[in-house]
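Next up, sample data:
>
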Amino acid sequence: MTRLIGDALRVTVFIGENDTWHHRPLYSEIVHRAHAAGLAGASVFRGVEGFGASSRIHTSRLLSLSEDLPVAVVIVDTEERVRAFLPQLDELVTEGLVILDHCEVLRYTGREPGTGKPDAKGKR
């Protein structure tokens, strides 16, 4: 497991839910590439409403029936590892917003494989 405590870099990618890469959801391609690159972690968050450079509002409200809701992919790791991953994002993200934030990781602990229990250190 990757060890990550202290100074880190967070990259957040804002894209549309319907954005694709070779017939696969773009957010899924980003997560799988981050995993293959050995980054500490990635999560996808689906928005309920938003707009971007096109100024079109996308919303989940029933009357609007938007099918292209905003999605945020968040990846955190050391600055060196995140910056090494940026060329892949440059290739994948042709429309959207990519931002970087310095952050501090206070805890990064996994679970024992297959048990759902905290790791050997007793932390979740």
Notes: The chain has a mean pLDDT of 86. DSSP finds two helices and eight strands in the chain.
